Structure formats: C-alpha cells, structure tokens
Description:
single chain, alpha+beta, Dihydrodipicolinate Reductase, domain 2, 4-stranded antiparallel β-sheet, 8 strands
Amino acid sequence: MQEMAGWPAYWRELPPMHYATHAVAPLLALAGAEAESVTCVGSGSVRRDDGSGGPSFAVQSALFKLRESDLAMEVTRSLYDVAREYVESFDVYGSKMTFEWQQLEREDPVVFTGEQGNRVRVPDFAHLLPEQIRQYTIRGVYDEAENHHFSFTQGSGHGGSHPHLAHEFVSAIIEGRKPLPDVFTSANWTAAGIAAHESSMTGKPALIPSFQEGRRG
C-alpha cells in the first residue's frame, strides 16, 4: 500500500475524491465557474499488507459539468496502491494555447501553440507580494530533511502558493472585500469531490449544490 510519510492515520481511509480540492480548485478558478454536476467511476481496490481493505477505490475519475458555462473538466485522483510519483497537477486546453503539467516533477511543463510544444519554466511571482513574505515562495518552512517532495522544497508547499493565499486572505480583511475564494466558492469546490465520490458509489450522476444563496443571507 502506497502511503505518504507523516500523513495522519485517518487519511488512509479517505476515498481519493474526498481530498480533491487541490485538483478541482485551480480548474474552477481559471474557468470562473462553479461545478454543477458530476459523473464519476472508481477503479481498482486498496490492499493493505495485513489483507484488510481501505478506501472504496484506488483510483476515481470524474467528469464535471460547470454551471452557466460551456466548459467541462476531468479530474482523476489516486492516493494509495498506485505506482506513480505523487503529483497534484492540472492541464488546460484552449483554441490557441494549451498548458500541460509535466509528468515528472523534476521536468518543466509544456505549452502548446497550435501543434508546436515547448517546455517552459513557470516564473516566480513573488514580486506581487509584500517584501516581507516574498522569500517564502522559494524557501520552505518545513524540515527539508524529511520533506524532499518538490512542493515542499520549492517553498511553503504547493508550488509556493501559500504566501499568495495568505496575502489574499489578509488583504481582503483589510480592504473590506470578499477574498478569492470566498466561503461560498470554497463550499462548492469542496462539495465537488464529495459529490464525485457519491456518484462513483451509486453509479449515477450527482448534482453539486450552489451555495450562492448564502450571499443574500
């Protein structure tokens, strides 16, 4: 059974789609839309060394319809019992350009212009942050002796995004505005994975609620 070192024991029981926000959120944020419905299928099973079972599926693959949009998105999640490097990634396909995440973290992603593809180095956007926290997009706060995964060694986890998320949250409070994501958007992003797991268990499409009514509350 493939397990991530240091993960809490209860995570070992999570269906892959119950921890899908890292894959769902970037796509919905780029689309500027909410997830409306999902059809998901599960594949394989998780086997422990002692013979006991784990989550319902080793892999879950979901197709999402977006609300008030002509876009759709596909998310595949695996956590355990899958021979693959641990990578959280996304691809975006457009009419003029396409972005595809690298399969190996030590490589660079590919940008296609038409049919011509080139590997590109993703720039560091630390200059958009206050000077006091810019360093944390490239320098981690974890024990690098124990956390060698690229998302940690690059800085502050998840590709150096944590300082940007913290800055957006604090700035929204100071400026008296809603952050991105706000609580209603975050609820939809989280519900998307939960609904996907429900679909994989029932074999039927699942609707994903909109929480926007709360804005008028």
